[in-house]
Amino acid sequence: MSNRSRVTIREVAERVGVHPSTVSRVLNPVTRGRITPEVVDKVITVANELGYRPNQAARGLRTNRTSTIGVLIPDITNPLFPPIIRGIEDGLGANGYTAILGNTDNIVSREMDAVATMRARQVDGLILATARRDDPLIAEFLKDRLPVVLVNRTADADGVSSIVNDDVLGISLAVRHLKELGHRRIAHIAGPQTLSTGNARREGFLSVMGAKELLSEQKLVVETNAFSEDEGLRAAAQLISDGQEFTAIVAANDLLALGAYEAIADAGLSCPGDISVTGFNDMPFVDRLSPPLTTIRIPHYELGREAARRLIELIETPDSPARATTLRPELIVRGSTAEV
Amino acid sequence: MSNRSRVTIREVAERVGVHPSTVSRVLNPVTRGRITPEVVDKVITVANELGYRPNQAARGLRTNRTSTIGVLIPDITNPLFPPIIRGIEDGLGANGYTAILGNTDNIVSREMDAVATMRARQVDGLILATARRDDPLIAEFLKDRLPVVLVNRTADADGVSSIVNDDVLGISLAVRHLKELGHRRIAHIAGPQTLSTGNARREGFLSVMGAKELLSEQKLVVETNAFSEDEGLRAAAQLISDGQEFTAIVAANDLLALGAYEAIADAGLSCPGDISVTGFNDMPFVDRLSPPLTTIRIPHYELGREAARRLIELIETPDSPARATTLRPELIVRGSTAEV
DNA sequence: AACAACTGTGCAAACGATTGCACATATATC
DNA sequence: GATATATGTGCAATCGTTTGCACAGTTGTT
Q1: What are phi and psi of B35, to 5 degrees?
Q2: What per-residue confidence (pLDDT) applies to B75?
Q3: In CATH, what class is B66-164+300-327?
């Protein structure tokens, strides 16, 4: 029987003895009220009996809506993203939408490709976890009135909705924790400044340290050009060999913190004995490192879920205004920070 | 201009001064040869100028093919799966196919739901990373002649294609390594026997140990009902408190090995000092644990990529026979195994 | 020179659902 | 009791592509 989803609305109609349009109206919750309850029952019964499933292609062709969302991420293999994606998919699924994913590896040409495929598939909207601060794609989407929500990273442009972590709060949580432990000279390994996350965390750090003006303190900030272990190692090694005095490092991300672990070990020092380290993200298994990493937990799943909700809102009520939302992170104290 | 992918085949045809069907034929590589080269050029030029993108919904409606594949996974948040997914998506994308994902959390009802949505979206085929050894869904798909490939886990049923790791080889790699280190009494924390992975590894262990018949040795095998840290802890604790003599544990998976780490610490013993431990999977960051985990690396990405290839083959040449393929894993020696 | 076989393109009918409009019947209004 | 309004359902067009068939023009065969 169930030959590759065969049964159509017409067959249901014939079996019930009504017109296909009636079946369509019954199956659409909005128009169901216009049909006699008895007919509604019969149609629903028969539709279930026959295992009717609407053909999305046909529906999409007619309505110009596919209930499909494109999701752009840098790389699903980066443990940061799976919980976000899971949140997005759960949020979309609950409302009858489906996601298609594109990995961009942070490469512009792959990003363009992915967007092209997604648009060919008539996605109803896009969720980007790949935004750079000056992302040209975003302007394009806004111009085409294609609903877009940024997640995890935001962009400088306004007029676009975004759901991101409150990075300034996160950094201030880390700094406050270190200060309570008696640390005064605190260094920062900053992420790429082209990404909102790297930038906001750096700005947050400077402002919380009251160091925005003090150039002297700014020597304790080293920028990296990727959120990677290698870059963290390089930056921390530089801090140490620079001869700067400091007793703690606030890393802009867990991977940078892991790099710092290495640099500290390489220098013959110990963490947290000589230098305390904090991360950012609370990736899986950082609680199993030695020492277990004190870090800032970001509500990744909720970020994704909220992005999905927001996008659906944008799609279904097209003139709802763009909003920038931040979610609150949490300090997770483990073993990589100690009293000075 | 680019108003939400508007331009249709008809507009292209009008601008060129030919019939829409001609444009369609030009755009389809298979039929392109039937059209005069000059016309082909003109159509292609105009199509590019106008930024024409075929409407997948219309195409799908007509051809009954969507170039969309459904991918069922237990949980994207489990670090095992992202590389598989990445491989699948790369493999599909290279051939013009797109994946839609469904997380099942190993819950049958969610699995049914996901399959229902996917079939409603008329997927051309399915890749399952969720198979149980006696999976009822598989029979259904085979009956409906819906192309399916199993990845990572396989099922007992035959007639279905699968791409999985060579688990027996993996286990024998681990056991041989331990034997070379002088271990003789080796225990096994087995995974769920309802999953092909758990089962194959256990069978492999018994056979490599030459213990298939020896009941005495079988006491050194403890089964768990999930590939989780908790279960690993429970199983290892049981082995230890049982008073069995053994100097090494071969865990059926990295998470189980992590649980074993805990149990060993809880018992006041040390790894690898008192007990060596091996894992299976080589999850991210197990090289950063203390001790760094000796484990079996599975070519996850290739597993996914190969599954995508196989599925496309199945779709495009429908009568190609079902094949079960295994890929070779690799032993990664780190710090959790030592001489006895 | 007549006929057969190709070639390149147009024509029109699908695919399955949605939806504005029309129409018959039932109910409300005066 | 006649007219106006509601109500429930049918009719048919439409969304954008693909594709079997038809047909005119060309080339090949004898």
Answers
A1: -105, 145
A2: 96
A3: alpha beta
- Decide if A99 and B101 are in contact by the 8 Å CB cutoff: yes
Residues 6+ positions from A328 with CB-CB distance below 8 Å: A166, A169, A299
CB pairs under 8 A between A and B: 125
B79 touching chain A per CB within 8 A: yes
Nearest to A76 among B85, B103, B145 (CB): B85
Q: Is the CB of B25 under 7 A from strand D?
A: yes
pLDDT mean over B220-228:
95
Chain A neighbors of B83, CB-CB under 8 A:
77
- The tokens describing A6, both together, are 């065969």
Residue A213 has pLDDT above 80, yes or no: no
CATH fold match for the domains A9-54 and A67-165+300-328? no
| Strand bridging mode A276-278 / A295-297 | unpaired
pLDDT of residue B273: 96
pLDDT for residue B212: 63
CA atoms within 13 A on the CB side of A142: 15
pLDDT per residue as tens digits for the range B121-151: 889 999 999 999 999 899 989 888 899 999 9
Instruction: Determine contact: A5 vs chain B, CB below 8 A.
Output: yes
- B56 to chain A, any CB pair closer than 8 A? The answer is yes
Min Cα–Cα distance to chain B from A117, Å? 9
From chain B, the residues in CB contact with A55 under 8 A are 61, 120, 122
Kindly provide the b/e burial profile for residues A143-157, where b requires at least 16 CB atoms within 10 angstroms of the residue's own CB. eeebbbbbbbbbbeb
Q: Which nucleotides of C are covered by protein (CB under 7 A)?
A: 7-12, 14-20
| Residue A299 three-state SS | coil
Answer whether residue B81 shows pLDDT above 90.
yes
Q: Would you say A100 and A123 are in contact if contact means Cβ atoms under 8 Å apart?
A: yes
CATH 3.40.50.2300 fits A167-298, yes or no: yes
CB A249, CB A260: distance < 8 Å: yes
As a whole-number percent, the residues of chain B with pLDDT over 90 amount to 82
CA of A50 to C1' of D8 (A): 25
Residues near chain C strand, CB within 7 A:
A 6, 8-10, 20-21, 24-25, 27-28, 31, 52-55, 58-59, 61-63; B 17-22, 25, 34-36, 39, 58, 61-62, 64
Q: Rounded distance, CA B103 to CA B101, Å?
A: 7
Class of domain A67-165+300-328: alpha beta
Chain A residues with beta carbon closer than 8 angstroms to that of B101: 85, 89, 99, 101
What pLDDT is stored for residue A194 in this prediction? 96
Our CA-based measurement puts residue A131 at a distance from the nearest CA of chain B, in whole angstroms, of 20
Nearest-neighbour CA in chain B from A118: distance (Å): 9
pLDDT of residue B2: 40
3-state SS string for B272-326: CCCCEEECCECCCCHHHCCCCCEEEECCHHHHHHHHHHHHHHHHHCCCCCCCEEE
Round to whole Å and give the CA distance between B201 and B175: 11
Domain residue ranges of chain A, discontinuous segments joined by +: 9-54, 67-165+300-328, 167-298
Q: Does residue A39 reach within 7 angstroms of strand D, measured from its CB? A: yes
Instruction: Tell me the pLDDT band of A214, cut-offs 50, 70 and 90.
Output: low
Tokens of A28: 């659409």
- Band of residue A1 on the pLDDT scale cut at 50, 70, 90: very low
Cα–Cα dist B153/B200, whole Å? 10
Q: For domain A9-54, give the fold.
A: 434 Repressor (Amino-terminal Domain) (1.10.260)
